[in-house]
Amino acid sequence: MKILIFGIGGVGGYFGGKLARAGYDVTMIARGKHLEAIKKNGLEVESINANFKVKPDLATDNLAEVPTPDLVILGVKSWQIQEVAKQLKPIISAETMVLPLQNGANNVEKLQEILPKKNILAGLCHIVSFVEKPGKIKHVSFEPRITFGEIDNSNSERIKQLKKVFYKAKITNFIPENIQLEIWKKFLFIATISSLGGLTRVSIDKIRESEYLYNLLQKTAQEIKLIANAKGIPLAAEHLEKAFEIIQNQPPGTTASTQRDIMAGRPSELENFNGFIVKEAEKLGIVTPVNKMIYECLLPMESEARNN
């Protein structure tokens, strides 16, 4: 199987590294000094499970060099998906599987605007990892897991085949009964903490310590549940409780990657998190005042980051 990993950040680097280590034909799309280091020395992964180093079959920033892949794993940010899909369109075949692992609730819909529906799978992942330096990925928390499935939740032959691929690469994976629900469960958690963290510029334990801020967190999550339910996603009270159990268990100093992007003045996933909720609410005639407040407060910073 020919596998293309588009984006060798914390997600693409870790899972792409595992697939290359298992002997699959892996191409990595990276850029700048990170690409130079991978081409020269291979990709190094430092993990809480085991450290390893791999040399991909090809590392490049030029898609014209890439053979038609059987599987594409998207390791870019959710706001980059549509541009990446346009770049992928000329090199994929009718049989190519495209698996998005981004945070966000509407990544599949974005892909469907550009790529044939039959190429697209739905997915997400759980991992805390990042690029520590050019050519090196550091995995610091969570047992890495990929959750994936067909958009219609059917148990297709290609889904069974992909599970075997992940199994051979020793990647923990899960095919749920309802992939859309799993995507929204993660979205509920990450969208709840990310932008309020970016707005307050403090770690999650500091937000927990403030009765006012913690109440805002809860209201943010409740509004997200409202939108999910209006769209037919069976997000329930038990899922909110589970999300807040995870929030309570985050160690002191924890921040989300979107929060770190906002604080560093980089383009973030604001539009795909709170912005998505606000815009879906307007379409559905639902009021989401907390998400709108957070979104509008951060929007000037986001616009400036994108202009720069």
Describe this structure in words.
The protein has helices at residues 10-21, 32-41, 81-88, 107-112, 157-168, 179-200, 204-209, 211-230, 237-249, 257-263, 274-284, 289-307; strands at 2-6, 25-29, 43-47, 52-54, 58-60, 71-74, 97-100, 122-133, 136-149, 172-174. With 308 residues, it is α/β, with parallel strands linked by helices. The protein folds into 2 domains: 2-177, Rossmann fold, CATH 3.40.50; 181-307, N-(1-d-carboxylethyl)-l-norvaline Dehydrogenase, domain 2, CATH 1.10.1040. The strands form 2 sheets. It has a 5-stranded parallel beta sheet with strand order 5-2-1-6-7, with helices on one face. It is globular and about 50 Å long. The model has no long low-confidence stretch (mean pLDDT 96).
Summarize it.
The chain is built from 12 helices and 10 strands. By secondary structure, it is α/β, with parallel strands linked by helices.
Number of strands: 10
- CATH architecture of the largest domain, please? 3-Layer(aba) Sandwich
CATH superfamily grouping of the largest domain: NAD(P)-binding Rossmann-like Domain
Mean pLDDT: 96
Global outline:
globular
Function: Catalyzes the NADPH-dependent reduction of ketopantoate into pantoic acid.
Organism: Salegentibacter salinarum
Keywords: NADP, Oxidoreductase, Pantothenate biosynthesis
Family: Belongs to the ketopantoate reductase family.
